[in-house]
Amino acid sequence: MSEQAKPAGGRIQDIGRILGIFAAIIIAGTLGYFFIEGWSLLDSLYMTIITLSTVGFREVAPLSPWGEFWTILVIIFGISIIAYTGASQVAKLLIELPFLRNRTALRKIRNMKDHYIICGFGRMGRVISAEFRRRHQEIVVIDNDPEALTYLAEHSYTYIDGSAIDDETLKKAGIERARGLVAVLRTDADNLFVALSARQMNPDIFILTRCSEEGTQKKMQAAGANKVVNPYEIGGHKMAQMMLSPHVDDFIEIVSGQRKLNLAIDQIRVTEKSDLAGKTLLETPIRSRFDTIVTAILDSSNEMKFNPASDTVIRAGDILICIGDRENLQTLSAIAGGDRASA
What we know:
This protein has a six-stranded parallel sheet with strand order 3-2-1-4-5-6, sandwiched between helices. The protein has a four-stranded antiparallel sheet with strand order 7-10-8-9. It is built from eleven helices and ten strands.
């Protein structure tokens, strides 16, 4: 039986059990009135229903002492059993809510493509996830810490309750269809293992990992990570930059979105369908229409050209590193991807 079929079958059995209990109570009450009072089956059924529902309609006929006693039994046992059954089902539903949320997330993930997987929702994972969400990127977060799961659920993240070092969990997150994976787990060993597994399952995925120990970077790159970040090293460079060149740091914060200005730096890939391909920078509307600065071009041979001249020819496969208005960058990215409606 499949993972999805088991819960459905269980719920059908629960519904059948509840209906069986209700039917048994009604049948027992009906037969009691039938034999005690000598009423017809319809009158006995009517009396049983109005007694259990407590609606207060008229009695079929005056009750005998034994009929009154039977009514007391129907009220006490019938309503008690119904109330207990209802309460137990509500409690069961509350217990199953996390599982139901997980199933809903899995259905959503199966329809995802070119999304990003965040492994670990600690301090770094939370900041990274928030930044991806701010940029309207589809993400799947993997974690099994109860506190992290509570936060993810409350803030409507798509997440999986599981361990990222488990291959099955990565498959559930859609590793084969994902564009990128970020591994920010608690230990370098776990991040190394995730990078190795992810590279085996998706040779084309972009993998970013965190390391905290010197010498781990090369091992992670050998395992398949495209980029390895040491937060302590970056933090040190950042603090030195803030002290020695504070205005440069201010500019970096603006273009990186850390300050609330409508200016950003982004990379834009030019496809063969784009009208930009085959034209010089001067011939394109990048500067004239979108008021965007191309600070560098990364070509197909991975050669980076900084501050390209106006007569530099843009070719399909080039990646433009641009600074400009956020909305203009989004439109320009669509044009570079071949969207003629935005041109």
